[in-house]
Amino acid sequence: MDTEFSVSEMKKLVTKNLSCLANGEFLKFAPANDKIIKVSYPLYMEAYSKVAISIMAKIYA
């Protein structure tokens, strides 16, 4: 579910709930993270656990 809050509304949420989970893509909260996500998603990086299981299976075989 997409929702949009202004910075002042997010501050109110944090004050009220003592937490807030936000994707700052449009507000540029963490521009480095946004770049990493945009690069890693098209590359389809495997989860570490899948890579480890694959390596162990090949060693066992």
Largest sheet: none
Quaternary state of this entry equals single chain
Low-pLDDT residue spans: none
Count every beta strand, where a strand is a DSSP E run of 2 or more residues: 0
**How many separate helices?**
3
Report the order of strands and helices. HHH
Q: In percent, how helical is the residue content?
A: 55-70%
* Average of pLDDT: 75
Distance between the termini: 44 Å
Q: Describe the global form.
A: elongated
Q: Cα-atom Rg, whole angstroms? A: 18 Å
Could you tell me the strand content as a percent range?
under 5%
Helix/strand structural class: mainly alpha
Number of domain units: 1
Write the SSE topology.
Layout lengths: L6 H11 L13 H13 L4 H13 L1
Describe this structure as you would to a colleague:
This is Thymidine phosphorylase. With 61 residues, this protein is mostly helical. The protein has one domain (7-60). The chain has 3 helices and no strands.
Structure, briefly:
The protein is an all-alpha fold. The chain contains 3 helices and no strands.
Keywords:
61 residues; mainly alpha; 3 helices; 61% helix; 0% strand; elongated; Thymidine phosphorylase
